[in-house]
Amino acid sequence: MAEPKAKYDRQLRIWGEHGQAALEKATICLLNCGPTGSETLKNLVLGGVGSITVIDGSKVEPGDLGNNFMVDESCVGQSKAKCVCTFLQELNDAVKAKFIEEYPEALIGSNPSFFSQFTIVVATQLAEDSMIKLDKICREANVLLIFARSYGLTGFVRISVKEHAVIESKPDHFLDDLRLNNPWPELKRFAETIDLNVTDPVAHKHTPYVVILVKIVEEWTKAHSGALPSTRDEKKEFKELLKAGMVAMDEDNYKEAIEASFKVFASRGINSDLLRIMHDSCSEVESNSSDFWVMVAALKEFIANEGGEEAPLEGSIPDMTSSTELYVSLQKIYQAKAEADFLAIQQRVKSILKRIGRDPDSISKEMIKSFCKNARKLKICRYRPIEDEFNNPSVAELQKHLTDEEYSVAMGFYILLRAVDRFAANYNSFPGQFEGEMDEDISRLKTAVVGLLSDLGCNGTTVTEDLINEMCRFGASELHAVAAFIGGIASQEVIKITNFLFFTAHNKTICSHGGNFHIQQHRSKVSIIGTVECFDGTGKLSQSITTSWDGAVDLLQALPPIYAT
Question: How far is it, in rounded angstroms, from Cα 543 to Cα 554?
Fold first, then answer.
């Protein structure tokens, strides 16, 4: 077998060795191994999770061969869980795999404690009542839970857990941590050793812009009673001050200083998101507090003391025009400050752990270092219980989006995905599953939709006839292309949660927009075009993403897997 670093080289570049180590410790339970479940688990097995347990009580039928790549003709009549587990194991022999031939609904009712042994449960194709039961079980056991479902040309992904802490949120846009308007003593002293009025033109044009800005900021604050530029005119004046320091038009370092001047205008101290986390009641830690909150408590103490109302320094500096000597010296100053901040927080973490009766070394050095480096970007996600989402939605938001031309299709499918479960509970089948009953099923589904909307408090609001007809036309089918799309999103969220990386789909139900989801075929090229509408637990639209995936495939075969990245 290839060495882990070579085997997982590409993903290690995204989440690092500590992220991969966390993934390899993950124990995943999959409920139902149809196309959606198989595609979700396939991505996780290839990624190198620690172990998987596949739970499904059904047998492989001929129809499964057309939408599930994890079964073949030899599997017909055999346990679906066993066959899927076998094929998944072949993808990565480093992953431990086992199966249980039992229907998930029965297991949820008969043995709820079973799920406490896993770190994450991925539940696919579950009906509403089973979702509510499983959510209660996993919340009580503090097990992360992800629901995924594909239904015709629509589907959803829903994360459910009491709380999820994100250390490496990796925001798209975030200011470099340079402390240009609040330098620490060592940076100040370094800047003081450099003369901006030096007569040597080579030295003048190779002074790092960080030094230029630190010195000009000091000059500005002395003339303005310690205040930073705040108004438009003041910011313009500050830039003119920088321009006045240029002695030649080709001085890139001064151009960089002018372009980076907006970093000076940012307010000093910690941002509002971090302030909310620090003031959270969970920051008052006890013996059963999570490692994250212990580190937050240490951070809170640090900011109030050694930090001087600032978070620990990240320690990196961007590329800039500079002499090698000055750049290396500047880099060492930033790295030394970051290391000193880390050591201070590490000591406070150990002190807090000892105070609450835990092993002072129970939180690793690597974890604390990562926490310090990302302290300004911490995020906390708290998710509504499924029962709360289903029974106590925001009526105003539901009505708004059901009648909004742009979002009514996505919200309509959200309502219909719940209505078909009511339909199935009443008639023991999903609408459109049997030939010759389409007209009757359409009428029954309309009744189910009206009843659901009435129960949700949306009297007088309805879903369009076209969507109801389309939902019946789906016939509860689980198309491989859609299942791969939904499975890609679900597996991506599992990895983000496991690694404490990126910001997850916070409290969202993600609906593949059936109205805009279509397949374009040209010769051997298949493009899957889809719009993903993201709603929070109240029914409020929070994000809309349109994207596409391409894959070469023989059109006589099933469509290829699609990775949502």
Answer: 34
